[in-house]
Amino acid sequence: MAALELYGTASCPFTREMREWLELSGRDFVEFDVERDPEARARMNFATGGQRMVPVLVEAGKAIQIGWQGRGCII
Q: Global pTM?
C-alpha cells in the first residue's frame, strides 16, 4: 500500500488540486472517495478525530494535512 492516502470526494475542487499537486510532486499515494466508500470514510474519521472536511492526507494512519491551502469541502 502507498505511504500516503488521499481522502476526498469527486465533487470537491480542493481534492482535485491536492491530487494534482501529489502527482506533479511524484508522490506515491492511493485515493479514496469518502462519499462512495463508507469504510474509507470511517478510516478518515478515525485519523482526523471526526473532522468533516476534505481533502485529507494521511500517512501511517495519522492525518498530516486537512484541507488544501486553508480551504476544503465539508462532507
A: 0.94
| Residue reference for cell 505511504 | 3
pLDDT digits (tens, 9 = 90+) for 31-44: 999 999 999 999 99
Give the span between the Cα atoms of 14 and 2, in whole angstroms.
Answer: 21
- Please count the other Cβ atoms lying within 10 Å of the Cβ belonging to residue 61: 9
Instruction: Extract the C-alpha cell encoding 25.
Output: 510532486
Q: For residues 52 and 44, is the Cβ–Cβ distance under 8 A?
A: no
When divided into structural domains, the chain yields a total of 1
Residue 19 is part of which domain span? Answer: 4-74
Confidence grade of residue 2 (pLDDT, cut at 50, 70, 90):
low
> Which strand (E) or helix (H) includes residue 65?
strand 62-66
CATH of the domain at 52: 3.40.30.10
Provide the pLDDT for residue 3.
83
